[in-house]
Design brief:
This protein is α/β, with parallel strands linked by helices. It is built from 17 helices and 15 strands. α6 (about 150-160) packs parallel to α7 and α15 (about 385-410) packs antiparallel against α17 (about 425-440). The model has no long low-confidence stretch (mean pLDDT about 95).
Length: about 450
């Protein structure tokens, strides 16, 4: 008899198996709690609620207002911010809203370049914002740290309206105080420039006290995703310092009014109706992040990352920046084992270790065939893996790298990744069995609501 169960739910079940039997090394992924899942799967998805608490364009938002106010207050408390906008659908939306709030078309934004480790939304020419604003990219030095001299030179030359510190593949802790001092020193009109930090990758570390908070060093605004290290639903968040007033009233274009300018830029400026079931899930996650045990979690993320980086280096992997100060690790597999990042990603996927190929600074391999891979420890730490397991993971990664290296030596360059690995299926299957056995010892926090 044919099952009445929709095919989608069978695919979801398959995904639960994939997640349960493998280990997630992608640094931008994590696992949410059962309570976060329940909030996302609630009847709140039925409600339209354009506007802000107490200022809605639809009726029946009494409970929605209570939820959003709670999410805002918890976010403010978590990051010691004057204001929080919890409505952005993603980190990209959050970034664009800040640009829209402060900058006019053609204004200059100074941000970390994509090859140096910046994010697509920080000026990549393929994005919408890069067609509206004039992005100037600063780089990193030989140690993998921000080239602060380059940043200062470019800030002095271009007098940007916004200086952005943020990244998707950067292993150091930024010197926020130094950036503030550079801005104060070289800008002709400091009151016309805001400092913005995109902390999407390390927001959970900031919330847990394992990373400095840029808002404490004179930065005006901080954006983040709410998943990744915050362990919330997929979404965005904007935190700002300044005067909070009615978000639907026009205010003067001053740094003091930045919170209101941002609220107006989110709605109605760049988004329509908020996703209140997701905002409820954000509120749940923020509540979890305020608990004392979250500080221990944040500290363990860093411990695991440093152990994993050290073990990889011992195993012959060349690491960008010689390791990590947060949870991000960028590995140069091309110089380490003579393989490209995509081949290595495919091979690791076969054994149940998931990460992503990633370009290195000055990489010539291109976005789809880069020389490196990016990995991190938030998801594994959520499941309870510790430093001992990091050593095991590093050993598996070395075994797979050696298989890929041998495959490259024995096959023509144009051989596809799948065909390249066919002769090594038995070896990869053995590692897959070992990964599955370890993964199942550390169950997912939740699989359904």
């Amino acid at each position: 008899m044919q099952s009445s169960k929709d095919e989608i739910f069978q695919i979801i079940d398959d995904e639960i198996i994939r997640q349960s039997e493998g280990l997630e090394l992608i640094p931008s992924e994590n696992y949410v709690s059962g309570d976060v899942l329940r909030a996302m799967g609630s009847v709140l998805t039925n409600k339209y609620s354009e506007g802000y608490p107490g200022k809605r364009y639809y009726g029946g938002n009494q409970n929605i207002d209570r939820i959003e106010r709670l999410a805002i207050e918890r976010a403010r408390q978590l990051f010691q911010a004057d204001h929080a906008n919890v409505q952005p659908h993603s980190g990209a939306n959050a970034n664009e809203a800040v640009y829209f709030a402060w900058c006019k078309p053609g204004d200059t934004i100074l941000a970390m370049s994509l090859p140096a480790g910046g994010h697509l939304t920080h000026g990549s020419p393929v994005t919408r914002s890069a067609k509206i604003y004039n992005f100037i990219g600063y780089g990193v030095d030989d140690n993998g740290d921000i080239d602060y001299s380059d940043l200062e030179r470019l800030a002095k030359e271009h007098q940007p309206k916004l200086i952005l510190v943020g990244y998707s593949a950067f292993m150091k802790i930024p010197d926020f105080q130094r950036v503030r001092e550079i801005a104060d020193r070289v800008l002709d009109n400091p009151e016309e420039t805001i400092l913005m930090a995109d902390m999407a990758h390390v927001a959970g570390l900031i919330a847990g006290g394992a990373h400095p908070n840029p808002l404490g060093f004179g930065f005006n605004v901080m954006t983040t995703t709410t998943h990744k290290t915050l362990r919330g639903p997929r979404g965005g968040l904007i935190l700002s310092q300044g005067k909070v007033s009615n978000p639907l009233h026009k205010v003067d274009h001053t740094i003091e009014n930045l919170p209101t300018l941002i609220d107006r830029a989110v709605f109605p400026g760049t988004q329509g109706g908020p996703l209140e079931h997701v905002i409820a899930a954000k509120a749940v996650a923020f509540g979890e992040d305020l608990r004392p045990e979250f500080k221990t979690y944040a500290q363990n993320i860093v411990k695991n990352a440093k152990t994993l980086a050290r073990e990889l280096a011992t195993g012959g992997f060349i690491l960008q920046g010689d390791g990590t100060e947060n949870h991000l690790i960028l590995v140069n597999v091309k110089d380490s084992f003579g393989i490209d990042g995509k081949t290595y990603e495919v091979a690791l996927d076969k054994v149940g270790l998931t990460l992503n190929a990633n370009a290195l600074p000055s990489d010539k391999g291109g976005a789809f065939r880069p020389s490196g891979v990016r990995l991190g420890t938030p998801a594994m730490t959520t499941r309870g893996l510790g430093e001992a397991e990091m050593k095991t993971v590093a050993n598996w990664m070395k075994q797979v790298a050696e298989i890929c290296s041998q495959a490259h030596e024995q096959q023509p360059e144009e051989t596809g990744d799948e065909a390249l690995l066919v002769p090594y299926e038995d070896s990869l299957a053995q590692i897959r069995t070992e990964v599955r056995e370890l993964a199942l010892k550390f169950p997912l926090p939740a699989t359904s609501c």
